[in-house]
Amino acid sequence: MEEKKKKLKRKDLLGIKELEKWEIELILETAKGFKTILERPLKKLPTLRGKTILNLFFEPSTRTQASFDLAAKRLSADIINISKDKSSVRKGETLLDTLKNIEAMKIDAVIIRHWGSGTPHFLARHTKACVINAGDGIHEHPTQALLDIFTLQEKFGKIEGLKVLILGDILHSRVARSNIFALNKMGAEVFLSGPPTLLPPQFSLLGAKIEYNVDKILPEVDVVMCLRLQRERMKGCYIPSLREYRKFWGLTKERAKKLKKSIVVMHPGPVNWGVEIDYEVLDILPNIILEQVTNGVAIRMAVLYLLLVGEHAEET
Ligand code: CP
């Protein structure tokens, strides 16, 4: 990393696609420092004292909302949590009005999860506050990809040269899109597999190799990233049944036995156990699903710090 590049060159974190490699490396390096703080008995820093952050979640979340909340508190920021069901959006207020009203109370950052792809980009054009995408529709989930890359870097030392298989419902997955961009930028080889109904061939245009025969590709890869079947986004019949999905695409104990000894199994959560992964697989394979969650706090501290303290050198 060049010495002068110590700040992100943007006001917002909207996606991985537009990030430069050195920006990803800067976030990972900053998160490494924050992770050591999280391992201390006293886990709090005064870094963001006086800053105010809005956590605006219009879709359910356990990991992302809690870890942004915790990341802000670990850095001594004030954070307000608003969900769709508890906001005046239920009374007909628009999302933009919600933002403008909260902005009038002087906030510095908005973290937004929304079912509409592109919603964070829309908000970013209408506020001086930093906007962070916490998952927009089927588009991107940048902090998930950053925490995944961080976790892989901890495991393997470097991402370059790794063969990573993303398996499952690629069509509806913002995690898949952000990870394809991030892994490619960091020099990994990305493979995709899943039912053809949930993996259109156009995904190869993003820089990934498609292999519909999961049993052929599994023994070759260093990492398997299983994805959740997003049934809430499915408007038609994409798979005959969950049983059939498990039989043809699930990480069963039989499939797990054919994997490399050094394999790393990941999942962004929430997991449908017995569908995407059999619980018994954890008896024979190292899995790092909860380490991903732990690293999510450090990554989100790094993102908040770099956007709110490290002034962006040059806006995009
Ligand atoms: N990985 C992830 O985004 O999980 P949540 O939906 O629980 O935030």
Order of helices and strands: HEHEHEHEHEHEEHEHHEHH
Question: Describe the biggest sheet?
Answer: 5 strands, parallel
Residue stretches low in confidence (pLDDT < 50, at least 5 long) are: 312-316
How much of the sequence is in beta strands? 5-15%
Structural class: alpha/beta
Overall radius of gyration: 19 Å
> Shape, please?
globular
Question: In which order are the strands of the major sheet placed?
Answer: 7-6-5-8-9
How far apart the termini lie comes to 20 Å
Helix residue percentage? 25-40%
Task: Describe what this molecule looks like in 3D.
The protein is built from eleven helices and nine strands. With 316 residues, the chain is of the alpha/beta class. A five-stranded parallel sheet has the order 7-6-5-8-9, covered by helices on one side. Strand 3 (109-114), helix 4 (119-124) and strand 4 (130-136) form a beta-alpha-beta unit. Helix 1 crosses helix 5 (142-156), helix 1 (21-38) packs across helix 11 and helix 5 crosses helix 11. The two termini are 20 Å apart. Mean pLDDT is 93; it is low at 312-316. It binds phosphoric acid mono(formamide)ester (CP). Residues 61-64, 135, 141, 144, 268-270 line the site of phosphoric acid mono(formamide)ester.
